[in-house]
Amino acid sequence: MRRSLTLYGLTFSLPLLIWQLLFFVFPLVFLVALSFWTVKNFRMQADLDTVNWATMYGRSVFWQAYGTTLAMASAASVLVSILAFPCSYAIAFKLSETARRWAIFLMVIPFFTSYLVRVYSWQIFLSDAGIINVMLGWIGLGPFGLLNTVGATIVGYLTLTYPLVVLLQLFSLVFIDRTLIEAAHNLRCGRLRTVFAVIIPSARVGLVIAALFAFILSFGDFVSPIYLGGGDPTTLSILITDTTKSGQQWPRAAVIALTMIATLLFVAFVAVRFAYKGRSK
Amino acid sequence: MSKIAQGQAGLTRRALLATGVAALAAPMLSRRANAAPVELTMLAWYGHAEPDIVAEFEAENNVKFVPKYYTGGDNMLGLISQSPAGTYDVILSDAEYVQALNEAGYVEELDPNDYAISDYFPEFQQFPGNWSDGKLFSLVTRFGFLGVAYNTDALTEADASTYNVYWEENLKGKVGHFDWHLPNLGQISLLNGNSNPYDIDDAGWQGVQDKTMSLRPQIGGFFDYGGTFSSLNDGQMLAFAGIGDWITGVLEKNGAKVRSVVPEEGGLQWSECFSIGKGSQKAELAKKWIQYITSAKGQAKSAQMAAYPALIPNQKGWEVLQAENPAEAKRQGMTKDAGNVIDMIRAGRIKYRQWPVQQGLEDWNDFWSEYKGA
Questions:
Q1: For residue B172, which residues of chain A lie inside 8 Å, CB to CB?
Q2: Which residues contact residue B124 at a Cβ distance below 8 angstroms, ignoring those fewer than 6 apart?
Q3: Which regions span the lipid bilayer (chain A) (predicted)?
C-alpha cells in the first residue's frame, strides 16, 4: 500500500520536515557533538573527548540534582493532576455550554502574562512580610518561612502547569461518551464510583498526557527553583547555569542537557505507552 | 468633502502636491544637515550605556551607543569568542577577566599618553592586569568593595563588622549568597586569616572549604542579581555574603534598610576596566569614550551611575563629585576625611578579587556546586 510521493503531498509535509530538521535535529546533533568538546582557558575546542561525561557523571552533586529535579517534577505533576481534576470535571460536566466557554477563556488568560512576572508576584504573597504571613499574623500565627523553600518551588510549578493541565484534562473529559455515564448510573453505580470506574478510565489518555506535560515543563523549569526556591536545592536547570557561569563549561552543560532530554524522552515514551495501553486501534 | 474643497479654493492641486512632497522630504533634509550619529558598540554590565552615563558624550560627539549587556565575565568572554573581530568597539571587563582578554588577543593596545592616568591615585596607575610587558591594554574606570551586606533593622554596623555574623543563631535561614563562588569563598578565606585570600595552599583551601560548609545550615538561598535585590529589599534575607555597595547602595538610595560594611577581617575589591575591542573600525571614537569616562567629569558621572554606584580611581573625579554631590561622596567615602576608601586600601584592609592562584578556577567552582547541593 505504498503511496507514491506527490507534489501536493510534499508541499504540505516538507515545511514541517525542514522545520524539524533545522530546529530540532540539527541542534540536538550539535549538542551531542558539543558534549565531546573540551575547554581550555575559557575557549571551546572541537574535540572528541569523553572527559565531560566522565566528570559530570562522576560528581555526586549531579546525581543529587538529578534526583531532586526528578522528585520535584514528579510530585508537581501528580499534585497538579489531582488539583486540576475537580476543576476540569466541574467544567466538563456541571457547567452550561456558555459557562464552559467562559471557564475555558479564564483558563487561557494566565498565558497572557509572562510566567516570570507571575512567579515574581508570588514573592509578594510568600515572603516573611508578605500577604499570607500578614493575614496569618491577624489570627496570631506565624510568620512562617514560605519563600525560598521546596514548597514555594512547587507552587511555582503549579502556576506554570495548572491552566494547561486543566485544559488538557478538560478536552478529554468533554469527549467522553455520555451514554457510558448514563449506563453506569442505570446500573446503580454511585457518583464517586462512576468517576473512578468510568470517567477516569475513559479519559485516561488525556489525563496521562496532561500529567506528562506538567512533568516536562516542571523538569526543565529554571524560574521557580531560582526565584521561589531561592536556588536551594540545586535543580538540573540551575546546575546548567552554574556550569556555564564559571569557566565557559558549555560542553559539561551539554551533558546535563542531553541527560535531561533522554530522561524526558524516556518518561514520555513510558507515559504514552501507559496511556494507550489496551486500547483498540 | 466638497465643503472643505470649496473652503480651500485658493489651494491648487500643484501647490498641494508641492507641499506634500516638501513635507515628506523634510525629515530627509534635516537628517542630511544633521549627519546620522555614528554607532559605537559597547559590551558591558548593565547600566554603562544608559542615558545617565552616555547622553552627554553622545550629544557632544554625535554618537549613539549600541550596548550589549552581559551578566558575568564568563558570559562576556563567550560573547566575544562567538563574534567576529570588530563586533564590539568598547569592552568593559571585570579586572580578573582582563588578563584573559589580553591572552586571547581580544583587545587593542592602548597608548598610556592618551589618558589622564597621572590624575589617578598612585595605587591605580599601574593596576594589575591593565598592563602586560609594559604595554597598556585596558584602563580601570571604577571599583567597589565587597563586605557584609546587612539589614539595618536586624543588625547594627558593629554586628556586621565581622564575617562571623553569618553564623549567628538568629540569622539561621536568613543569610543569602550572591551565587558566584569567587566573592563568597574569598570572604571566607579572609575570615580564615589568609592575608592573600586567593593565593592559598592546599591546607588553606581545605580550611576555606570546611569553614564554608559549616555555614551551609544558615543559608536561606543562592541568588542571582535580581533575586539578591528583591530578597534584601523585602527583608527576606537579613545578611548577604558576596556583595557590597554596588547592590546595597542602589537599594539604600531607594529607601531600603540595607547597608554594606567592610568587616574587620578586610574586604574584597571588584574593579571594572575599559578596553578597545580588537579590530574595531571606530577605535578613535572608542578611545575618545575611554578618555571621557576616565576624565574627572566622566568619573564623577560613573560614581553616581543609576544602575549601580561605584568608587572611582581618578583623584580629580573625587573633587568634581564632592562639588556636585557632596552627600553621595560622603556616603561612598570619597572625601578628604581620614578613613576614606583610599585610606582603607592603604591600610591593607582591601584585597583584590581575583582568580585562585594555586587551585584551578574549576576546583573552586566544583566546590561551590557541591556546597550548594549539600
A1: none
A2: B140, B313
A3: 12-37, 69-93, 99-117, 129-148, 154-176, 196-219, 253-276
> Does the pLDDT value for residue B24 go beyond 60?
no
Residue A226 grid cell: 531560582
What is the amino acid identity at position B187?
Q
Check residue B23 and give its pLDDT.
56
**In the predicted structure, residue B7 carries a pLDDT above the cut 60:** no
Contact B223 A41 (CB under 8 A): no
Q: What is the ipTM of this complex?
A: 0.76
Please list every residue in chain A whose beta carbon sits closer than 8 Å to the beta carbon of residue B104.
41-43
CA distance B30 to B20: 16
Please, which pLDDT band fits residue B74 given cuts at 50, 70 and 90?
confident
B148 plus B129 within the same structural domain: no
pLDDT, one tens digit per residue, over A169-206 is 999 999 999 999 999 999 999 889 999 999 999 999 99
Tell me, what's the pLDDT at B99? 85
**Tens of pLDDT along A77-122?**
999 999 999 999 999 999 999 999 999 999 999 889 999 999 999 9
How many domains, chain B? 2
Q: Which of A72, A245, A248 to mutate to test the interface with B (most CBs of B within 10 A)?
A: A245
Angle CA A120–A160–A61, to nearest 5: 80
Q: Give the whole-angstrom CA distance, residue B60 versus residue B58.
A: 6
> Smallest Cα–Cα separation from B61: which of B44, B38, B83?
B38
pLDDT(B209) > 60: yes
Q: Is residue A103 one of the residues assigned to a domain? A: yes
Whether residue B344 is contained in a domain is answered as no
Tell me the torsion sign for CA atoms B49, B52, B57, B59: positive
Residues of chain A found within 8 Å of residue B364, distances taken between Cβ atoms:
246
